[in-house]
Amino acid sequence: MLNILVTGGAGYIGSHTSLRLLEAGHNIVVLDNLYSGHRWAVSEEVAFYEGDIQDKQLVADIIDKHEIEAVVHFAGHIVVPESVADPAKYYQNNVVGSLDLIETCIQKDVKHFIFSSSAAVYGIPSTATVDETVTLEPINPYGKSKLMTEWTLQDLGFAAGDDFEFVALRYFNVAGAHSSGTLGQATPEATHLIKVACEAACGKRNGMSIFGTDYDTPDGTCIRDYIHVEDLAEAHLDALDYLFEGGKSTIVNCGYGRGFSVKDVVKTVKEVSGSDFSVTMESRRAGDPPQLIADNSKIKKMFNWQSRFDDLETICRSAYEWEKSRG
User: Fold this and answer.
1) Where are the alpha helices (DSSP H) in 109-228?
2) Which H or E run includes 267?
3) Domain that includes residue 150, residue range
4) pLDDT level of residue 126 (50, 70, 90 thresholds)
5) Residue 71 and residue 105 in contact, taking contact as beta carbons nearer than 8 Å
6) How would you list the strands of the sheet with 3-7, edge to edge?
7) Residue 314 pLDDT exceeds 90
8) Domain count along the chain
9) Cα-flanking dihedrals φ and ψ of residue 70, to 5°?
10) Which residues are designated catalytic?
């Protein structure tokens, strides 16, 4: 049983991971400023602090009070178009905030750290399937902020020696909702495809758009690797186990290793919902790679990570049921 601080634990992925860690018998403390998270998403069994990761005194006090042994760091802004429009916001929160948090952890002798990174660090790769060794060329401030934080972890971790080890998990397209129906994506004005399609299926949107139908893919639309949020939560538990068993700092992809097109997703949401919502074909958006699929061999080998929800229909159905339950 470990004492674990989860930053951003009231958000979409953070709340699912906090619940999974709680189920595994760990003592969980959540720190969240509720900018995009929700207090109701945090179990009453969890100690909750409303505050910011840049409040170094607060973080230090939490570490001391709860004898924190590991930190799982989700707190960050994640909307790509917003990062382009307001890059300072992303560098201040995602980069400077993470630096403040990492420094405090090292100063307070917290030796284990899990970071929520992103496939956005790859930019537009030259191959459809990417492993962790390909060239990193993020094309927007969001992706750059994630890469900068990875570099920060590497450099501060090197300076700290054996006293600080981390795992950075590069998420691909996270979707779905908890099988209990108690948690799901509740971010307002979300831009994720499955979330948008489910909102359209529930009548919360007047249809949706597909951006680009002339890509070099079988049906002309972009192909992505979609991972169920519960499988991603499990990856964080596996990463913690790896570190506490003496594992060294590493970076791994989190995806299923296969992709589905935008049209595949829309078709599946229509099937599980029984709703034939309106779909408009639009021109391409700048910066969308035709395909982005994870090579997940490293996480399977290193952590013995095994997926349970690797099925597009399951992902879409859970997301739709969650969306429908929210009225």
Assistant:
1) 141-160, 193-201
2) helix 262-273
3) 3-174+226-254
4) confident
5) yes
6) 47-50, 27-32, 3-7, 70-73, 112-118, 165-171, 250-254
7) yes
8) 2
9) -155, 150
10) 142
